[in-house]
Design brief:
Largest sheet: 10 strands, mixed
Oligomer: single chain
Strand content: 15-25%
CATH topology of the largest domain: Rossmann fold
Strand order of the largest sheet: 3-2-1-4-5-10-9-6-7-8
CATH superfamily of the largest domain: HUPs
Distance between the termini: 26 Å
CATH class of the largest domain: Alpha Beta
CATH architecture of the largest domain: 3-Layer(aba) Sandwich
Number of helices: 10
Number of strands: 10
Structural class: alpha/beta
Radius of gyration: 20 Å
Helix content: 40-55%
């Protein structure tokens, strides 16, 4: 059984991500945990705080959150009616990242699915702040679902990689199972510089070729191209439904996602994005 965490702020974006998760794992037994964290500051209580004690205020918030979680569960069950799926609910007075880290250990969570509105403004970045912070601080996989993304079965999956990851990464089997369930085509994509010799990647390519031998997969090598532009161009040309990357610390991944890009060409995918922690990050 898969154990999946669904954080929510009760927005349309969060609900859309939940719907994506339920549909993505339609054929599998799953336990979904709906999570909402809160503090009085979060709710901008203002003058209400003056008329309630701290304890009374927290009780009011607890009751409101509980009702909203119940409503969310009812909406998901009513819409999808899947006997393979069960739901747990957790509303708690805590910081979101701290609660997620606790639940990952407590419930053996293997995946977080959350909505993201992306970024706007002059200093554009790929993902919203909460999503980026989650990816950087949790030790499990995260799927970021763009706001207003209508569910598409992941028939075409893009996996950009520099091949610098461990053979032992447990999430490789997660990718393989995902491809099997959805009969997906896995596009393994690498951009090399002129000075890079192909032989450096041959061992990992051979490993992946055998690992995914029962899944349709294809290697794509681009030379001397800007990685951001190459990924976006590939997405559009091949109608990609899901983007996957492994988060290696101090790797090209960090350069892509966690540094502001102040120009007109911004790496901004319009499809769900599965981020897998490296073996090193899961061990630390």
């Amino acid at each position: 059984m898969k154990r999946i965490l669904l954080p929510t702020d009760f927005s349309d974006t969060a609900y859309n991500a939940m719907c994506y998760a339920v549909q993505l794992f339609e054929k599998e037994k799953c336990e979904f945990t709906l999570l909402h964290t809160y503090t009085p500051v979060t709710y901008n209580v203002g003058t209400v705080a003056d008329s309630y004690s701290t304890f009374e205020l927290l009780e009011v918030l607890k009751s409101t959150v509980g009702q909203n979680l119940d409503k969310t569960e009812e909406l998901l069950k009513g819409k999808f009616k899947n006997p393979n799926h069960t739901f747990q609910k957790k509303g708690t007075y805590n910081l979101l990242i701290n609660e997620m880290q606790d639940l990952i250990k407590e419930k053996n969570i293997e995946l977080i699915v959350m909505g993201t509105t992306g970024a706007t403004g002059a200093k554009e970045i790929f993902l919203g702040t909460n999503t980026m912070y989650t990816i950087k601080n949790v030790k499990c996989a995260v799927i970021a679902v763009p706001a207003n993304f209508s569910y598409e079965e992941p028939k075409e999956i893009l996996f950009p990689t520099d091949f610098k990851f461990s053979y032992k990464n447990k999430y490789l089997s997660f990718i393989r199972d995902l491809c099997k369930t959805h009969t997906s085509k896995l596009h393994i994509f690498n951009v090399v510089k002129e000075e890079t010799t192909a032989s450096k990647n041959d061992m990992m390519m051979d490993f992946l070729d055998k690992y995914f031998e029962d899944n349709f997969h294809r290697f794509h090598i681009a030379k001397n191209k800007d990685l951001q532009e190459a990924i976006v161009a590939f997405e559009l040309k091949n109608k990609i439904n899901l983007l996957i990357m492994i988060h290696n610390k101090h790797s090209f991944f960090e350069n892509l996602l966690f540094k502001p890009v102040i120009n007109k060409i911004v790496f901004h995918t319009q499809v769900p994005f599965l981020v897998i922690p490296s073996e090193e990050r899961m061990m630390n």
